[in-house]
Structures are given as structure tokens and as C-alpha cells.
Design brief:
- The complex is a heterodimer of chains A (about 475) and B (about 350).
- Chain A is of the alpha/beta class.
- Chain A has two domains: about 1-230, no CATH class; about 235-480, Glycerol-3-phosphate (1)-acyltransferase (3-Layer(aba) Sandwich), CATH 3.40.1130.
- Chain A has 21 helices and nine strands.
- A seven-stranded mixed β-sheet of chain A has the order 1-9-6-2-5-3-4, sandwiched between helices.
- In chain A, helix 11 (about 235-255) packs across helix 12 (about 285-295) and helix 15 (about 330-340) packs parallel to helix 17 (about 370-380).
- Chain A is elongated, with a radius of gyration of 32 Å.
- With about 350 residues, chain B is α/β, with parallel strands linked by helices.
- Chain B has one domain: NAD(P)-binding Rossmann-like Domain (Rossmann fold, 3-Layer(aba) Sandwich).
- In chain B, about 40% of the residues lie in helices and about 20% in strands.
- Chain B is built from twelve helices and 15 strands.
- A seven-stranded parallel β-sheet of chain B has the order 5-4-3-6-7-8-13, with helices on both faces. In chain B, strands 1-2 form a two-stranded antiparallel ribbon.
- The chains are: A alpha/beta (about 475), B alpha/beta (about 350).
- At the A-B interface, helix 2, helix 3, helix 4, helix 10 and helix 13 of A face strand 1, helix 2, helix 7, strand 14 and helix 12 of B.
Chain lengths: ~475, ~350
């Protein structure tokens, strides 16, 4: 009997949150069109954490009302513990993004026991003593009579009446009408049909009036969505938006970039764009990103893989990272592709950007073919891409290799303007750029195990390299001038 | 009490099944019980009916000691600590040891910290060997992966620990990891869970990262703005509890969802950055460290320059740990408590 009281007390503490949760769920169900009340059974297979907790409570509730002797098996946390749960539960239950990946019974059990396991339990500030009356709470259950049971019943009765009235007033056609329950029993409450849209609106309005609710739900939701300001690879959306007019100006007016065959880039799904690295100041990644955003029909979001040295540089590294550059490594590329992103790779690497002006448009070695392995492993199509014009924008006349080694940068460029005009000399010349996208190359006829075949990777890499080289030569022949 | 301990204990799951947790309820020993994580874990375990006894070991009694807890005064640095630990583990029939008697922040007293980390851990591990305690949970740091420009965006548990060996704090931590590697070698039937946490922040925790972010002007490295991730203190304690409850051997990275640039973290705390060139910061920090004024060693500068972000997918899939707070929420929780402290509405000093 005393245990029952304990339970009731615990429930009462949790009531506010549970009901809110329940209403929200009901609303959702209705929106989904599942009006069948009976289908709302306890045997839904993969349950999110919120619903788990709820059905658990439901069972407890039905156990309470049943006259049969109550067998308490669930762990009963002492009063202070349940208060903590009630305080913390809302965001555990409400937020569906926190579903566990329930791939076994184990996990389901875990999610159900989440509050007991301590997920979301409050942290006790140091030097705070636990109250002494909670001692032995589990062991002996002191017989205290709490009035919470009566209050609970009253609230339930009132709720049932209110719901019934609202349903009566505005009964939607698609819901099977049910009589207003004569007595607000637990079963009736459980079997009752979900409240109508108006009822939900009224309830949510009442809930919204409470600041606590706002803070707990919408405050968190708002925070969560704003937390996406920087994505996991460092792209800052708001910075990107600010930068956009500048990039568009450079793209349209400064370099007057023309694209050719941009429809070869798929509108959705993963793909790898492989291009020649151009110019001693590598802004080709940024321009490629702008090209796909402005000229591609699906306005694709491209992330380009940048060499390691960029991230050692102050300012430039952070700037490029916030603008969308990702450090070139297999882990990052695979992670991006597994989320169906579009990525750009410049396999020439540092060799490509440090080549002298006389070597322009002559593709350097294509690394160790990491990008081919990537395509084979992730089954992503490869789109060869030739960027013409970029290699004249900041022509590299000479490299101070000794000084570069001293400064620990891959190369120190000497362009017609750079050391002479100071930092202003780093501004690239307004050449005319053309970006050509070739036919996508599919590697579907190779399995993922082909990625470990070094000979094959080398052969494929060479094939891609010659494709891009011929595209470059083709484009160079066709153009009239570097400037127009 | 004894029949209570062996009585079958069961839990009703959401699907209505009654599962028996185990025939025997757990006896958990916590070293470093008076540390922040320790005392909060005791609080959680006190509430859990599946835990029979909590054996608290530290130099001073934690304030959360309740009816189930038994406190033993013990200094891990003491030469006879191993003996006493083994004795206590045997007498109390301890089945799970949570080793939290490790440093939370770099300390200038490098001799003591070296003793505590290296010798203390050794004594705990040896006591476990002697008492045949097979389950051990140790807390470690994701920062041990080292901050570097060549790090992938997410460091998995397989990534090597590349933190600077020159720094005494990281050197001792790396030595602890090495000891653990030997201890948890397969084939010995031990369940060793190593929890590598991201910097823990929250309303009440206090460590070198929260102290750094709390500075009036937060010094940063000019031209760098690394991505940071955090872990809320409640999530950290919850993860420890989860590791106690479930026997999952292995190493797990624990961090909240999402990353934040350091500049945004400082901004969220309503502080201002003080960007200084690395060439100036490094000798300054070194001088402050040597003159025993500052408590940050120059090795920490790496973390102000480059990202050290851990991949937490393994903790999610194998340990079942899903943090409640995102990195940003954890930080804003810390910020709100900080604001209250500023206007003297929150007087409790952080531990």
C-alpha cells in the first residue's frame, strides 16, 4: 500500500510533463491520419524514448487501478530522485532527435530505463547535502499518506470533462465518435480518442502562456536550430551568406566565369568533382563552390577538400574553413560522401598550386589516387572538371624555396605583383575563367574491394588525369585571349 | 542486509517484460570520490536500487555520502594504498571500480600530479588484480588525441593519442592510458571501460577549460578559431552511471552533439577575446608557468589553434550513450550560471 502511495506521488510529480508529452503525441498521431484509437497499442515495435516512458507509466497506472495485488517490480527512486526526473524529463521525452538507435531489446530496455539509469539526472552542486529523510527510502518505504492521489484524480476528471466538451463541440468527420466517458477511469482515458485540432490548439495556447513551458520546449528547440550555425566541418552558414554577394561579384564581374556542362553534375546524391588546381593563390575551390551554387539548376552545396598547409595558416585557414573548405583526408571525404554531399578534390595537391607559370595547365602527378579509392569505396560518380583561366590569375614566376622552408609554408610565391606591391599584390588578375565539367565517370563495375588494388587505382587515376588534360587543352585551343 | 543483496532484483521494461538485472546487486567502489564526478556519481548510485553498496575512497568524505555509501579515507599517493585498496575491495566484495582519482586540470605541482596519476593508477590497477575485481571504469580526455591541423574533422577511438608528450599534464595522462592498455588486454576477462570526455562544462563544474572561458578577457591565438566540442556535466555523470550499469568493455569518446568555434564559445559566455600572436603567447605562458603564476602550460596553445573533435558514434551505438545537451546548450547552461555568479545570486563556489 505504501509503495502504491510512493508511486502515485512520483506520478503526480511527473504528471505535468507526461500529460504534455501525451498531448503532443496525440496531436502528432492525428496529423498523421491514424485515427484508429485501438491501433495505438503498446506493441509498437521501435519506440522512441518518449513513448517508452509513457507506456511504462501507463502500465503503472493500470496496475494502480486494478484491484489485484500490486506487484512492484520497477525500481522506485526516492522522492528527491523523482523530483529531479520530473524536472529533467521534458527535454528527454519531448525531443525526438534524441532517439536511441534501438537495434536490440537491450537498447529498448535501456531507453525505457533512461531516467533510472541516470541519463538527464540533475547534477548535484558540490557541497550540497542530500536530505536525510531520503535515507532508507528504498529499503523500508515509510508509510506516509500523501494527498497527491486525490488531486490527481480531480485533475484527471477535469481534463476528461474539458476534452469531452471540446470534442462534442467540434467533432471532425474522420474520427469515430465515442461517448463521453461516464466516469474518468484510467482505461477510459487511455482508450479515449485523440483530441481535435482545436482542442490541441487551446491546450497548447494555455501551455504556451506558461513561461516554464516556453523555456523548456521552444527555448531548447530554438537553441538547437541555431546551434547549426557551424556545421561539423566548420562551415558557418551565416558567414557564408554574408560572403555571398562578394563571391557573386568576383564570380560574375571579376572573373566573368562561364560554365560548360554543369548539368553533368548530378542534381542530388554524392559525387566527386575532380579538377586542376589553378594559380598560386588557390581560390578555385571557392569559385567552384560559387559556380555550383549560382549556375547549377539544383543549386548544389559543394565542399572542397583543401591541403593541410592551409589549416596551419592564420586567418586564411579559418576563413576558408568557415567558407566551406574541409581538410583533405579520407575520413572527412568519406563522411561527407556518406551524407550524400558533393565534394571537389584537387588531386594535384600542393604540387598543383606551386607550379611555375611556364608549367601552367600541365597537370602534375595525381597523388596516390586517394580520390579514386574514395569513389570506389563510396560508389560515387566522378566528374572531371577543367578550370581554364585560373592559372594565369596569379602567375608564379619564381619560388623562394629556402625562405618558404624557413617560414614553414609550402611555397613563397613571386608573381609580377606580389612582393612588389605588398599584400595588394596577392589580388589575382582579372582573367576570364571557364569551368568545364566532363561526363561523369562511374565505377559501378568495380566492387568496393577494388579500392585495395593499387594497380587498378593507378590505372584509373591516370585515365582521369588524361581526360582532364585533354579537356584543358581543348579549352585552351578554343579561347581567344586570357582576358576575354 | 545480506539477503537484500542477493535477493533477485528485476526491472519492468516498457514492453512489459520483467528482466532480472542480476542475481547480485552491484558493489561499486569509487576512488577520488570527493571529485566533482565522484560525488555526483555517488548521488546517482544512492538512488539506484540495483546498487547495494558504494565504497567511497578519497582523502576527504564527499558530501553526497548517503545510507548505502561507506567512506574510507585513503590517499592514492600513499605507499600502502595498494594494500589498503585490495583489503577494502576484498572485504566489501567490490565488483566494479570507478577510478576517478585523477587530475581534472593541469597542476603546477608536477611531482605530486605525476605521483597521483602514475603511481595512484598503478596502485588501483594492482589492487584490482589482487582482489580479482574485473570491472573497471576510468575517465580520460579526448584532448589526448592532440590538436593538430592534420586531424580529421572527427577523431575516432582508433586514432592515436598524439597529445604533446612534453607537457607534464598530458604526459601523465598518456602514461595512464598506457597502463590501462596493458590492464585491459584481451583474454584476461576484464571489463574495462575508458571514457574519454570532451571538456566538461556546466553550471557547477570547475576545471581548467571552464576557468579559461571564465577569464575577463579570453586570450586566443591571432588568426585561429578552432572548433571545440563540450560535454555537459550532467551528461558526463550519466555516462559514468551508464558504464557502471552496463558491462561494455572498450574505449569511448564522450562529447555532446555539435561543434562550436572558440570565438562563439567566448561570445556565448559574454566575454571578449584577446587575440594575441602565438609568438607572443607562447613565451608569456611559459614564463607565467615557470614563475608559478599562471596555471596553463604552453602545450594548451595547440587547442586554441587547431581542432580536436572526437567522433562519438561508438559511444552511441555500443554504450548507448546519447547526451541530453548539445555543445551549445551545455555552454549556455554554464553561461547562465556564470551570469548568476556575477550578480552574486549564485554563491556556491564551483568544485
Amino acid at each position: 500500500m505504501t509503495r502504491k502511495d510512493k508511486k502515485q506521488e512520483k506520478q503526480a510529480l511527473r504528471r505535468s510533463t507526461t500529460d504534455r508529452d501525451e498531448k503532443k503525441r496525440k496531436g502528432k498521431r492525428k496529423a498523421d491520419g491514424t485515427a484508429d484509437v485501438r491501433a495505438r497499442s503498446r506493441s509498437e515495435a521501435p519506440k522512441p524514448r518518449g513513448s517508452d516512458g509513457k507506456s511504462k507509466k501507463r502500465q503503472k497506472r493500470s496496475a494502480l487501478d486494478a484491484p489485484a495485488p500490486v506487484e512492484v517490480t520497477a525500481p522506485v527512486t526516492p522522492p528527491s530522485g523523482s523530483a529531479i526526473d520530473a524536472e529533467i524529463l521534458p527535454h528527454v521525452g519531448l525531443d525526438s532527435s534524441y532517439e536511441l538507435t534501438a537495434d536490440g531489446d537491450d537498447f529498448e530496455a535501456l531507453s525505457a530505463d533512461a531516467p533510472e539509469l541516470g541519463i538527464g539526472s540533475r547534477v548535484v552542486a558540490p557541497h550540497v547535502r542530500f536530505e536525510d529523510e531520503q535515507d532508507d527510502a528504498f529499503e523500508s518505504f515509510p508509510a506516509t499518506v500523501t494527498p497527491s492521489g486525490d488531486v490527481e484524480d480531480q485533475i484527471r476528471a477535469l481534463e476528461a470533462r474539458l476534452d469531452g466538451l471540446i470534442q462534442h463541440a467540434s467533432r471532425p468527420d474522420n474520427v469515430v465518435p465515442l461517448a463521453v466517458p461516464p466516469a474518468p477511469t484510467v482505461e477510459a482515458e487511455l482508450e479515449r480518442e485523440p483530441p481535435s485540432a482545436e482542442a490541441i490548439a487551446v491546450e497548447s495556447a494555455a501551455e504556451l502562456a506558461g513561461s516554464q513551458y516556453y523555456v523548456q520546449k521552444w527555448g531548447r528547440k530554438g537553441l538547437r536550430s541555431r546551434a547549426e550555425e557551424v556545421d561539423e566541418f566548420g562551415l558557418d552558414r551565416s558567414f557564408d551568406a554574408k560572403l555571398r554577394p562578394v563571391l557573386d561579384f568576383i564570380y560574375r564581374r571579376y572573373f566573368r566565369i562561364q560554365t560548360e556542362g554543369i548539368e553533368n553534375v548530378p542534381s542530388e546524391g554524392r559525387a566527386v568533382v575532380v579538377g586542376n588546381h589553378s594559380g598560386s593563390i588557390p581560390i578555385d575551390g571557392l569559385m567552384l563552390r560559387t559556380a555550383l551554387r549560382t549556375d547549377h539548376p539544383a543549386s548544389r552545396d559543394l565542399r572542397w577538400l583543401a591541403e593541410d598547409f592551409l589549416f596551419y595558416l592564420p586567418f586564411a585557414g579559418v576563413f576558408m574553413n568557415r567558407a566551406g573548405a574541409v581538410r583533405a583526408c579520407q575520413e572527412n571525404a568519406e563522411r561527407l560522401l556518406s551524407r550524400d554531399n558533393l565534394i571537389a578534390v584537387f588531386p594535384e595537391g600542393v604540387q598543383g598550386i606551386r607550379k611555375l607559370f611556364r608549367d601552367r595547365y600541365r597537370l602534375q602527378r595525381f597523388g596516390r589516387g586517394g580520390y579514386i579509392r574514395l569513389c570506389l569505396r563510396t560508389r560515387a560518380p566522378l566528374i572531371p572538371c577543367a578550370i581554364i583561366g585560373g592559372e594565369e590569375a596569379s602567375p608564379l614566376l619564381y619560388r623562394f624555396d629556402a625562405l618558404a622552408d624557413l617560414l614553414r609554408i609550402p611555397y613563397l610565391p613571386v608573381t609580377p605583383t606580389f612582393p612588389a606591391l605588398g599584400a595588394l599584390g596577392l589580388v589575382p588578375a582579372p582573367t576570364k575563367w571557364r569551368i568545364k565539367f566532363g561526363e561523369p565517370i562511374q565505377f559501378d563495375n568495380y566492387g568496393p574491394e577494388a579500392a585495395d588494388d593499387d594497380l587498378l587505382v593507378g590505372r584509373l587515376s591516370e585515365r582521369v588525369r588524361t581526360t582532364i588534360q585533354s579537356m584543358l587543352e581543348n579549352g585552351l585551343q578554343k579561347r581567344r585571349s586570357v582576358w576575354f | 542486509m545480506s539477503e537484500e543483496r542477493t535477493s533477485p532484483h528485476s526491472i519492468r521494461t516498457a514492453s512489459g517484460d520483467v528482466i532480472r538485472v542480476s542475481g547480485k546487486r552491484r558493489v561499486v567502489a569509487i576512488t577520488g570520490a570527493a571529485s566533482f564526478l565522484g560525488l555526483n556519481l555517488i548521488g546517482l548510485l544512492e538512488d539506484d536500487p540495483r546498487v547495494a553498496t558504494i565504497v567511497c575512497l578519497d582523502r576527504s568524505a564527499p558530501p553526497t555520502v548517503g545510507s548505502k555509501s561507506r567512506f574510507y579515507e585513503l590517499d592514492l599517493v600513499h605507499p600502502a594504498a595498494e594494500e589498503r585498496l585490495a583489503e577494502v575491495f576484498g572485504a566489501e566484495a567490490v565488483d566494479t571500480v570507478v577510478h576517478l582519482g585523477l587530475l581534472e586540470s593541469p597542476s603546477r605541482e608536477t611531482t605530486h600530479s605525476h605521483e597521483l596519476e602514475g603511481v595512484g593508477t598503478m596502485q588501483v590497477l594492482n589492487a584490482c588484480r589482487r582482489a580479482r575485481t574485473h570491472k573497471l571504469i576510468v575517465r580520460s580526455f579526448t584532448w589526448l588525441y592532440g590538436a593538430s591541423a592534420t586531424n580529421p574533422a572527427f577523431l575516432s577511438e582508433k586514432h592515436g593519442l598524439r597529445a604533446r608528450n612534453t607537457d607534464p599534464f598530458f604526459r601523465d595522462k598518456l602514461a595512464v592510458e598506457e597502463q590501462l592498455l596493458r590492464f585491459r588486454q584481451p583474454g584476461q576477462g576484464r571489463v574495462v571501460t575508458v571514457l574519454r570526455t570532451a571538456p566538461i562544462v556546466g553550471p557547477s563544474v570547475d576545471n581548467f577549460v571552464s576557468r579559461y572561458l571564465r577569464l575577463a578577457r579570453v586570450p586566443t591565438v591571432l588568426g585561429f578559431d578552432p572548433l571545440w566540442q563540450f560535454l555537459h556535466e550532467a551528461d558526463a555523470v550519466a555516462a559514468l552511471k551508464l558504464a557502471v550499469d552496463r558491462d561494455v568493455p572498450g574505449v569511448f569518446n564522450l562529447a555532446s552533439e555539435g561543434v562550436l568555434p572558440l570565438s562563439m564559445a567566448v561570445h556565448l559566455l559574454r566575454r571578449h577575446r584577446l587575440p594575441l600572436p602565438r609568438s607572443l603567447l607562447r613565451p608569456t605562458l611559459g614564463a607565467l608557468w615557470l614563475s608559478k603564476v599562471g596555471d596553463a602550460s604552453p602545450a594548451l596553445l595547440d587547442y586554441l589553434q587547431y581542432a580536436c573533435v572526437a567522433d562519438t558514434s561508438l559511444a552511441k551505438s555500443r554504450l548507448g550513450f546519447v547526451p541530453v545537451f548539445s555543445s551549445r546548450e551545455a555552454l549556455s547552461d554554464f553561461a547562465s550560471a556564470e551570469q548568476l555568479r556575477e550578480v552574486k545570486l549564485l554563491s556556491e563556489t564551483p568544485a
